[in-house]
Amino acid sequence: MRRLLARLRRLYADYRALRWALWALGAVASVGGTIVGALAADAWRRMGPVLTDSPEYASDAKASPPLASIHWSLPHVDLGPFVPLLIALAVVLAVRVLLRWPMARPDNPWERDPKRLFTDADRRWIKELTGNRCEHRWMFGLLRCRRRGAYMDGHGQMDHHYPHAKGGATVRTNLVWLCDRHNNRKSDKVPTRLETWMLYRARLKYLPARWRAYARIDATTDETEEDDDDGQERHEPQARGAARGRTIRRRDGGGVGRRPVPARDRAPEEPPQEP
Question: Which portions of the sequence form the region Disordered (predicted)?
Answer without folding.
Answer: 221-275
